[in-house]
Amino acid sequence: MMIQELKEIVVEANKELLKRKVVIYSWGNVSAIDRNKGIIVIKPVGLPYDELTTENISVVDLEGKPVRGEKNPLKPSVDLDIHRALYENFQECQAVVHTHSTYATVMAQLHHEIPCFGTTHADYFAGTIPCVDLLTDDEVINDYEWNTGMAIVKYFRTHNINPEEIPAALSINHGPFTWGEDAWDAVHKAVVLEEICKMAVHMLEINPDCTAIPKVISDKHFFRKHGVNAYFMNDDHGHGMIHNK
Ligand SMILES: [Zn+2]
């Protein structure tokens, strides 16, 4: 893929966040990586979505430095290092989305993971979406953004969670991150995650003791759409990173 094409996709994917009402102002960002070219395309910091173009989007290398020959008139999102930590450690991840969508952020601020309360969740995520651990004071003071990304990575490693099967996490006290096989996939999951969190918040209001559905049902819903034995892929609901493997 040409860099220009990737820039066009990431511009439109960022605008999609606004259209789907998972961001206000500039409260979120989409990036995508081209691992062959060694570049990341990401929304610049603070720019309203309707002013985002292929001329002002940020193009950086895998270390976060501006790519020579690209215009880069603005600084990349302050969250760039969170995205970089995910790309460096989750090799299948080709795009990352961060928002402060209301219900997902409510769950993050409650330090509450998102159990699989129904098949809507299971169509996209193979189990509980975690709310990851707090950073230490030192991790907040030094390299805060990188450490925020690494908190997600460490949680997935410690708890043996496959980031292809659970392509989302809540950054504690902060908000949601999703990732996917391309920018559209990652945005789709950010929008779905918000709906799932909305359902979860209402369920917990009605019954604080509600529990996840049986694993046999959640596995059935996830793995009929994802992975080697998938047989139900001809719709766009539940489309995921590993569906073609
Ligand atoms: Zn944020």
Report on the architecture of this protein.
It contains eight helices and six strands, in the order αβββαβααααββαα. It is an alpha+beta fold. It has a single domain, classed as L-fuculose-1-phosphate Aldolase. β5 and β6 (175-180) form a beta hairpin. It is globular, with a radius of gyration of 17 Å. It starts with a helix and ends in a 22-residue tail after the last helix. Residues 240-245 have low confidence and may be disordered.
Cofactors, ions, other ligands: zinc ion
Number of separate domains: 1
Q: How much strand content do the residues show?
A: 5-15%
Radius of gyration, rounded? 17 Å
The side-by-side strand order for the widest beta sheet comes to 3-2-1-4-6-5
Distance, first to last CA: 21 Å
CATH architecture: 3-Layer(aba) Sandwich
Compile the SSE list and pairings.
Layout: H1 3-19, E1 28-34, E2 39-42, E3 58-61, H2 80-89, E4 95-99, H3 102-109, H4 119-122, H5 137-141, H6 144-158, E5 168-171, E6 175-180, H7 183-206, H8 215-223
Antiparallel strand pairs: 1-2, 1-4, 2-3, 4-6, 5-6
Zinc ion (ZN) binds at residues 98, 100, 174-175.
Descriptive tags:
245 residues, binds zinc ion, alpha+beta, globular, 6 strands, L-fuculose-1-phosphate Aldolase, single chain
Quick summary of this structure?
The chain has 245 residues and is an alpha+beta fold.
